[in-house]
Design brief:
Elements: E1 24-36, E2 41-52, E3 59-62, E4 67-73, E5 80-83, E6 87-91, E7 101-110, E8 115-117, E9 120-127, E10 130-134, E11 154-163, E12 167-170, E13 173-180, E14 183-194, E15 201-204, E16 207-213, E17 216-222, H1 227-233, H2 237-248, E18 256-260, E19 269-271, E20 274-277, H3 289-298, E21 306-307, H4 314-330, H5 336-347, H6 367-384, H7 386-399, E22 404-405, H8 407-420, H9 424-439
Parallel strand pairs: 1-11, 17-18, 18-20, 21-22
Antiparallel strand pairs: 1-2, 2-7, 3-6, 4-7, 5-6, 8-9, 9-10, 11-14, 12-15, 13-14, 16-17, 19-20
The chain binds zinc ion.
Length: about 450
Amino acid sequence: MGSSPLPAPSSSPSYTPDSGNSGYRSLAYDLDIAYRVATNRLDGTATIRLIATADLTRIPLDLARLRVSKVRVDGTKAVRFVQSAAKVVITPAAPIPAGEEFVVTIEYAGAPTPRNSTWGTVGWEELTDGAIVASQPSGAPSWFPCNDDPSDKASYRIRVTTEQPYAVVCNGVLVRRSTRSGRTTWEYEQTQPTSTYLATVQIGRYELVPFTAGAVPGVLAGPPALRSRIGHDFGELPSMMACFEERFGPYPFDGYTIVVTEDDLEIPLEAQGLAIFGANHADGHGSAERLVAHELAHQWFGNSVGVASWQYIWLNEGFACYSEWLWSEYSGSQSAASLAAATHERLSKLPQDIVVGDPGPKLMFDDRLYKRGALTLHALRLELGDDAFFGLLRSWTAEHRHGVVSTADFVAAAGAAAGAGAGAGAGASRVTALLSAWLDRRVLPPL
Ligand SMILES: [Zn+2]
């Protein structure tokens, strides 16, 4: 079936070679954006606090298509910069020594458009009546200058001013809203470390309806015409939150916002503290319940515990898919075991050409990677037993809260979880071998 017993190469070049920069890390983004929905015109000022990790004579940032008009470094007057298709490279007046913090201020403008990528278009995109940002994995430079590397997390303050009838939803907490001359400014603050691809702006004729899920405050944002459908289809969120907090540990952010766009969307997607669904996902019959659980689970797996490189995407998607099965089990629907058996049966008939631990950029969002990632976790659960398995998930989210991880980190943690139990050392090596069969080889192991 096209499968090969050969192990994958031990490391891969970047999955997004045009994104990310070396020589510094980001600490905080302050984005001040004026946007006109009618004309898709964006005027932005990005104030970015960075720290040099090497002596810097030039500062490259990712920015696609939008034109930079002025750059300052630490408040000094206009400094030199050059702009190419996907970068703006700044030359500070004097070299910045390693270890020093500095602030870059960039004024830029244009008509934001999504970027073309291996995975279709990503980034800022116009809706029929509003705008959506869906950046995974390389779309962030379509709307702000950044170090577009998932391992480089920073805090965000995003201020968007737009025409009054529109609501703006961004990551984090709405800290200010004011209206002047028919335009409203919405200011959001996201204090927890956030990857660029999870920073977002959503603009539409939305009403914002508060809800709570246990101790977590939430907002349902969507078109008023869809209010009852949204209320119904996201009504299980409090139970989902309870299920996942019990299995994964405390919810890692200040709140959770759902945005339902007036347009249909091919797939829902996660952002930091937030998830975006299309009108088609809120049909009033709960048809997308599986996906509601999936996106919520990303807040732990992918958003709080992030990937150090896209190569490790299964640590986001395998966990989010397995969470769908955990929710199914918890809510009295099909058990994870029966869902795993059915999925294994289906995958066994498909080409076995994916190495889950290093799928390559073309296959990183392949449904088979998602499902086989989930099966990997089910196989591990069978090996460890429920107590050790869920203990592992809770210590994983606690230890790596707001950090980034690799597959090797997870294999080590799973080995330690096995070693701590009854079988001790033999258990640890069995777990390492089991995970290697699932993650490093193309052939589908038996369940
Ligand atoms: Zn996902």
